[in-house]
Amino acid sequence: MPLLRIEQIEKYYGNRSSLTKAINDISFTVEKGEFAAIMGASGSGKTTLLNCISTIDRVTSGHIYLDDIDITKLKGKELNKFRSEKLGFIFQDHSLLDTLTAYENISLALSIQKTPAKKIDEAVNEVARQLDISDILQKYPYQMSGGQKQRVASARAIVTDPKIILADEPTGALDSRSARLLLERFKFLNSELGATIMMVTHDSFTASYASRVIFIKDGRIFNEISKGSDTRKQFFNKIIDVITLLGGDAGDAL
User: Which of 50, 108, 161, 225 has its CA 20 to 30 A from that of 90?
Assistant: First the structure.
């Protein structure tokens, strides 16, 4: 049984006189422990798709199942509980709270879940070790580099041991070195800890760290490719080939 099942989802915006179909009959699955990326030009529907999976937005029709739960039917307290227990979010803007230290930012979700203090301390220190941020746990966001902030945000996303990590342009605001460091950590989380990751990106280099890339065009799946036994460089070249077919500029990778 796949961890995530997307079944014939559609998403419309507007009204009858001005209707925009952002997602047009998309179906696919993501297995437990998979690292999947979604690519597409601006306006292709990739962020809308992620927003529907993350329950930020609601589908117009179709169903999304995560861990065999139909999330399109969840409301109110059920929905809030599902978000806090099953999902981890990483955004382009790290969204850290400026008045809290890295430790406090990471531990907040566990505190909300009423996790005992000793377990919180163990969990925060372990995830900090995994993401190589143990030395900045007592720092505030203004004292951190962009890459450090994003790794703290990643730690906050995974500390609750979510079923799936949803990342929206996680390297978009980072320089190339910080982006590479973050992606290496993602790879570690996926390959060594078995984290399931779904990431939206416009960047081919970033996408090449995934094990599968799904390309969206005009609200539909245009193509998808799997890394298989390819090296990351070989996979990167295949991604560029599909982007060229999509009509994108390989230089800016959509």
Answer: 225
User: What are the angstrom distances between the C-alpha of 37 and each of 59, 167, 200, 208?
Assistant: 20, 9, 6, 9
Per residue in 115-145, pLDDT tens? 899 999 999 999 898 888 999 999 999 999 9
Burial, 110: exposed, middle or buried (Cβ in 10 Å; 0-12, 13-18, 19+)? buried
Residue pair 9/62 in contact (Cβ under 8 Å)? The answer is yes
Q: Which amino acid is at 26?
A: I
Instruction: Give domain status of residue 254, yes or no.
Output: no
Q: Is 78 a domain residue? A: yes
- Contact between residue 136 and residue 129 where contact means Cβ atoms under 8 Å apart: no
Distance of alpha carbon 168 from alpha carbon 237, whole angstroms? 22
pTM of the model: 0.86
CATH number at residue 159: 3.40.50.300
Could you tell me if 168 and 92 are in contact, meaning their C-beta atoms sit under 8 angstroms apart? yes
Query: CA angle, 235 as apex, 232 and 241 as ends, to 5°?
Result: 145
Let me know if residue 252 belongs to a domain.
no
